[in-house]
Amino acid sequence: MNSKISHSGIIDSVAGGNVKVRILQASACAACKVAAHCHVSEAKEKIVDVSSADGSAYRVGQQVVVSVSDDVARLALLLGFVLPFAVLVAVLFIVLWLTDSEGVAALSGVGALAPYYFLLWLLRDRIGRRVSFQIEDSKNI
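^ that's the sequence the OP posted. Answer follows.
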């Protein structure tokens, strides 16, 4: 079963086959009735890039639904959070075991993230082909 994660949004710009969609990403409690009185709720506006074969089918201000499959969302979560955390913890414990210095271990753990994120940056085109949003049929909004 391959379900999708969807967000409604408004098209900000269209340039060739690249469509920029503005979505409102809200926390689970942002829609709560007492959210205005609580400091936990939050909502952030995000711009996502969507590659489209026919960018002329969309216009600025049009309301659309962007979606991504659960598998793609899991891959993005793995690359963005799980693997960097694993690198940080592994380097932290290895350096702590080798040097017995918490300061050096902490700096090494954080420093190990720089090559990881540089590698992600180098592979951004390859990753972008797998991790991408699609625009669903907007007539049903």
